[in-house]
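User: structure tokens for this one?
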Amino acid sequence: MKVTEHLKQAKDTLFSYEILPPLKGASIQSIYNTLDPLVEFNPPFIDVTYHREEYIYKTKSNGLLERKSVRKRPGTVGICAAIMNKYNIDTVPHIICGGFNQEETENALIDLDFLGIDNLLVLRGDPINSETYFNAEKGGHKYASELIKQVDGLNKGIYLDDNLKNLSKTNFCMGVAGYPEKHFEAPNMNSDIHFLKKKIEYGAEYIVTQMFFDNQKYYDFVKLCRDNDINVPIIPGIKPLSTVKHLNLLPHRFHLNLPSELVNEVLKCNDKDDVRQVGVEWAIQQTKELISFGAPCIHFYTMGKVDNIIKIISEFN
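Assistant:
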């Protein structure tokens, strides 16, 4: 079932999760160990992130450079298929521009279609560690809007090879990312909304926001979207703060602000367990307010840890 169909049929606010593929060399059981306690709360869908392949160059004994792959989290497509098979829960693989040319993207989409996966979260993706700015693959897409157009083309039976016959249409439901505090590369919020609207016009059907810790950011974002005729569902993304390191890490990595009240409460903590509890309580209050606001679904970023997510969701079941 498509994400948008889940949202339309729901009588109450839904809860969904986003998980990371395990590190290279780990088994699928690590995913099951993460999800087993979460599926008890009947999530309508589960997102699985994609981490592009990166390379380093090592100098060999003869002085030549050897390119070595350092991708550490493979398996998004396989994980999605395994989750659907084991739990009978819809999955949403993330599909990105980085690391793919258009033909490779088309082949990946065909594989997903064959597996019966009809949801996608379409993203540009971040620059790799060796890049200052995002660089597209040769023959690939520079922007998520271009990738959306390609997926929409497949939904209409338009393939890259004009000579193909008896073409079938895919039926993907596409979500895109939204940034309540602005994408860090956008010059201002109005510019960010302009390009978000283009993604909706090109075929995206819902929005999932970047994490935020001040609900007013989400409220303002929704209003700005509606004022600009962006009327698709907007799902808020929540990540409970769990360590003191997050005070610096989250603003740096995700370009967001932490409310002073939250920071002050964390700084009062005596140990890591206290910090984790503060994060849980803050997220519970966020969730209560977002439900009252009418958010169609709360999307939890697990980052591989779920004990705090379980505590939060248990408050509402």
